C-alpha cells in the first residue's frame, strides 16, 4: 500500500517543490494539497491520510495550531513539519511530529522522513493486528461460553436419527458409553447410537450431574444406586433403571467421593 500524503503550505512554489520531490517515490500517493490549516483539517476528514507535510507559518491558523487539531482526530495522521523556522522543533515534537524538515528541502531529507513514516505505519499496523487477534480470541471465548450456557439452558440433547432429530432431556440420560467411534446413550425411554464423542458430551451435559467415571463412561449420578468394591481396589457402579455395571477408574474414586460427599 502506498503512503498517502497531504501537502499543506500557503506558498504555491513551496507546494510545487514538495510535490515534485514526493512524486519521485513510487510508493507515495499525494491525496491532496491545502493552502491553510482549516482546509487541511477538512481534507483529513474526507480522505484517508497517512502523513501531513505541514508548514508552520500560515495565515489564520498556523501549522502548530493545525497539528494540535489533527492529533485530536479519531484516526489522526502522522505529521512532518516542513518549514523555514529553525527554532520551533521542540514545539513540533511535543505535538508528536514524526519529523521536522527545514527548508530548502532536499530529496535525501524527504527520503529519510518517508522511512520514518513507513516504520511508524508498520508499527501501527502491527499493534492493530495484535489488538484484532486478541479481540477475536476474546469473542471466540465468549461465544464458546455462550454456546455452552445456551445448551445447558434448554437442558435437551439433540440426537440425529433417520429423518428426524430427537431431543432428550438431560435428566432422562442415564449413561453414555463409548463404543468404538460411536457413543451409545442409555436413556429412560430407550437407547441411541450417536456420533457424539464423550468429550463433546462432557461439555454439553450439566457437570453438576454427569461424571466421567471411566474413559469409556459418562454417568448421570442421579441414577447411581450402588458403588461396589469388586476386589483389589477395583469398583463398579450399579445404576437404577438401566441394568448396567459401570467400571469406575481407580483415579476417579476420590473425585466421585468428593462430588457425592461420601
Primary descriptors:
single chain; 262 residues; alpha/beta; Rossmann fold; OB fold (Dihydrolipoamide Acetyltransferase, E2P); 2 domains; five-stranded parallel sheet; 39% helix
Kindly summarize this structure in a few lines.
With about 260 residues, the protein is of the alpha/beta class. It has two domains: about 5-130, Rossmann fold (3-Layer(aba) Sandwich); about 165-260, Beta Barrel (OB fold (Dihydrolipoamide Acetyltransferase, E2P)).
Structure description:
The protein is of the alpha/beta class and 262 residues long. It has two domains: 3-130, Response regulator (Rossmann fold), CATH 3.40.50; 164-260, OB fold (Dihydrolipoamide Acetyltransferase, E2P) (Beta Barrel). Helices cover 39% and strands 32% of the residues. The protein has helices at residues 12-23, 37-46, 63-70, 89-94, 107-154, 198-204, 250-260, and strands at residues 3-8, 28-34, 51-54, 78-83, 99-102, 156-161, 164-169, 173-179, 182-187, 190-194, 210-214, 217-220, 224-231, 234-239, 245-248. Helix 1 (12-23) links the parallel strand 1 and strand 2 (28-34). The radius of gyration is 35 Å and the shape is rod-shaped. The two termini are 67 Å apart. 26% of the residues are buried.
Amino acid at each position: 500500500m502506498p503512503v498517502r500524503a497531504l501537502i499543506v503550505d500557503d506558498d504555491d512554489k513551496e507546494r510545487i517543490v514538495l510535490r515534485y520531490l514526493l512524486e519521485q517515490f513510487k510508493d507515495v500517493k499525494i491525496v491532496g494539497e491545502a493552502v491553510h490549516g482549516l482546509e487541511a483539517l477538512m481534507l483529513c476528514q474526507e480522505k484517508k491520510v497517512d502523513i501531513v507535510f505541514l508548514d508552520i507559518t500560515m495565515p489564520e491558523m498556523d501549522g502548530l495550531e493545525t497539528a494540535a487539531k489533527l492529533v485530536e482526530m479519531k484516526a489522526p495522521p502522522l505529521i512532518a513539519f516542513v518549514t523555514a523556522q529553525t527554532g520551533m522543533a521542540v514545539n513540533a515534537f511535543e505535538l508528536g511530529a514524526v519529523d521536522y524538515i527545514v527548508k530548502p528541502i532536499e530529496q535525501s531529507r524527504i527520503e529519510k522522513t518517508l522511512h520514518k513514516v513507513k516504520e511508524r505505519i508498520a508499527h501501527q499496523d502491527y499493534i492493530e493486528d495484535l489488538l484484532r487477534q486478541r479481540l477475536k480470541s476474546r469473542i471466540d471465548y465468549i461465544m464458546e461460553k455462550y454456546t455452552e450456557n445456551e445448551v445447558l439452558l434448554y437442558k435437551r440433547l439433540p440426537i440425529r436419527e433417520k429423518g428426524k432429530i430427537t431431543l432428550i432431556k438431560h435428566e432422562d440420560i442415564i449413561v453414555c458409553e463409548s463404543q468404538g467411534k460411536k457413543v451409545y446413550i442409555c436413556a429412560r425411554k430407550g437407547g441411541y447410537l450417536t456420533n457424539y464423542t464423550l468429550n463433546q458430551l462432557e461439555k454439553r451435559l450439566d457437570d453438576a450431574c454427569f461424571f466421567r467415571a471411566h474413559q469409556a463412561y459418562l454417568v448421570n449420578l442421579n441414577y447411581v444406586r450402588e458403588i461396589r468394591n469388586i476386589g483389589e481396589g477395583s469398583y463398579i457402579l450399579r445404576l437404577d433403571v438401566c441394568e448396567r455395571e459401570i467400571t469406575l477408574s481407580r483415579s476417579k474414586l476420590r473425585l466421585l467421593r468428593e462430588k457425592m460427599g461420601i
